[in-house]
Amino acid sequence: MIPAAFDYVRAESPDEAIALLTEHGDEAKLIAGGHSLLPLMKLRLASPSVLIDVGRLSDLSYVRDGGDHVAVGALTRHRDLETSDLLGQQVPILAHAAGQVGDPQVRHRGTIGGSLAHADPASDLPAVVLALGATLVARGPSGERTIAARDFYRGFLESALEPDELLTEIRVPKVAGAGWSFQKFNRRAQDWAIVGVAAVRNNGASGVALVNMGSTPIFAQGVVDAMAGGASASDAADHAVDDAEPQSDINASIEFRSHLARVLVRRALEEAGG
Ligand SMILES: Cc1cc2nc3c(=O)[nH]c(=O)nc-3n(C[C@H](O)[C@H](O)[C@H](O)COP(=O)(O)OP(=O)(O)OC[C@H]3O[C@@H](n4cnc5c(N)ncnc54)[C@H](O)[C@@H]3O)c2cc1C
């Protein structure tokens, strides 16, 4: 399990990282915590010829009050999300879900930017930012642009980021006082979700998103529409699979996954006050 040979360069600033991406093009990959990219490289499912290390860009590691939102730097590690007082007060579902990612070692290395950019449908945080309606900030050679979380996921391990763009910030709406729930079903503690659900209920509006129920993180529009139409949590949960394309794997058949999604959506809506 040894990766193919690669060159390594450490970026000293976000601008240098973007310049290096521009210079090396498709051959290059950013590396932040390395907890998703390195396993792929060891399996030879990814073979970048240049690794651009952004893991020490401390300028992009922060949790700040942005007025109507909390601004989270893309290099913020899961552990810092989990223990952030600001997130605990204003966006508790994100702090809680970050505390459910892997084990303490993973949470001390992995970053929110890496988790979102990796676009793994089995990851926890993409569903949370979808349910919250967060905005992602990307910076490239021609400047900065914002991308709604709903527009960010394009396919399996595929995001809306261009090859020369760096994800720099995640803007998460403040939802202090809102109902929320994060349901993660796994067979072993600290494991990936077989199915997960993030739900937020704020002033009568809902955001619900699913983990590991398709090739991308899924926004459960059918559930949200049912809730908006006055359905009970139980009736809305019948729509849990409307927008999903569950796959079978070693952990669950399509039928079991679909059943889990309905049960977990109902529980999430009830816990969030649906
Ligand atoms: C044993 C183990 C258990 C895990 N369990 C879970 C779990 O239960 N739930 C869960 O959600 N995750 C889990 N993970 C994944 C973990 O959360 C990773 O840390 C995370 O998915 C990726 O973050 P990273 O910083 O390590 O990214 P990296 O591996 O460094 O990068 C991942 C991808 O994102 C790109 N990237 C990184 N940063 C940026 C950026 N700022 N801009 C643009 N592109 C960028 C890289 O080029 C690469 O393609 C687990 C990982 C391991 C090893």
Can you walk me through this structure?
With 274 residues, this protein is an alpha+beta fold. The chain is built from twelve helices and 14 strands. The chain has helices at residues 14-24, 37-42, 78-82, 85-90, 92-98, 104-109, 112-118, 124-132, 149-152, 221-228, 233-237, 254-272; strands at residues 7-10, 28-31, 50-53, 63-65, 69-73, 135-140, 143-148, 153-155, 158-159, 166-173, 179-185, 195-202, 205-211, 218-219. The chain has a five-stranded antiparallel beta sheet. It has a four-stranded antiparallel beta sheet with strand order 11-12-13-14, with helices on both faces. Flavin-adenine dinucleotide binds next to strand 2, helix 6, helix 7, helix 8 and strand 10. Flavin-adenine dinucleotide is lined by residues 29-37, 54, 74, 101-102, 106, 109-111, 113-115, 117-118, 123-125, 161, 166-167, 192.
